[in-house]
Amino acid sequence: MTASPTSSAPLLQADGVHLGFGGIKALAGVSLCARAGEITAIIGPNGAGKTSLFNTVSGFYRPQQGRIVFEGRDITRIGPARRAAMGLARTFQNVALFRGMSVLDNIKLGGHSRLAANPLTAWWYLGPAQREEMALRREIEREVVDFLEIDHVRHQPVAALPYGLQKRVELARALAMRPKVLMLDEPVAGMNREETEDMARFILDIQEERGITVLLIEHDMGLVMDIANHVVVLNFGEVIGEGTPADVRHNPEVVRAYLGEQAAARQVAQA
Fold this sequence. Notes:
Layout: E1 10-21, E2 24-35, E3 39-43, H1 50-58, E4 65-70, E5 73-74, H2 80-86, E6 88-90, H3 103-111, H4 119-124, H5 127-145, H6 163-175, E7 181-185, H7 193-210, E8 213-217, H8 221-227, E9 230-235, E10 238-243, H9 245-249, H10 252-259, H11 261-270
Parallel strand pairs: 3-8, 3-9, 6-7, 7-8
Antiparallel strand pairs: 1-2, 1-4, 4-5, 9-10
C-alpha cells in the first residue's frame, strides 16, 4: 500500500510560522509545503506542535510571525469559515460530531457551506432552497456515503455508532465540503487494526481517485510510512527533518527525538 504523487506543485504552504501562548512557544519558524495531489504527513512526539500547526493553517489561530499561503494567495488573515469555503476541510483529533443527529444530517452539514439559498428562502424552506437541499442530499448519498461504505448506518444517530464508524462519518462530513486540501488530525487514533486498514484505504482512494491533497497528523508510523509521499517531523515547535518516508526513517535527529541519544548513535555507527 503506497501513495503515488500526482503533481509537484505546492498547493498549501506554511512559511516561517511562529505561534506562542504567553511564554510558551508552540511553533518556532515552521515551514512546510503540501504539494498538489500528494499526502503530506506531519509527525512528532506529543507536544511537538502538530495540532497547533493545523489550527494555524485552518485559521483557528493567527501566527505572530510568518504566513499561510493557499493556491498562491496569502490567507494568514482570513478566518476559518472563508478558508473552508476556499477548499480547506479538516477533521479533529477528538470526534466532533452532533451526537443526537443522524449520520446523514451530520454529513449534510459539511455541504451547507456550498448552498446558495438566501436567508428568506432557507427560513421558509421555499422552492429553490428545498430543491438545492435535495440535490445536496442526492450528491452526498452518491459520492460520499457510498464511497465510504456507510450506507447501512446513514439514518442512525451518531451516538449509537462504534468509534471507528464515527471517525468515518467525520471524514464524510469533511468530504461533503468538496475540499481541495483535506486535513486529517489523527484519523486512526483509537482504532483497531481492521479499522485502521479501512481508513488507510479510504485516504489513499481520496488522494488517488479524487486528486485531493491530504495533510495528515498521525502517530501510527506504520500508516505514515505506507501511505505518505512526504513527511515533516516536528519537535518542540521546530522542523527537525523532512523528506520521503525512507529519508525520515533514517534521519538521526528524528530517531533521537523518538528513541533517544543512544538509538541515534547506534544508527550513525551502523551507517
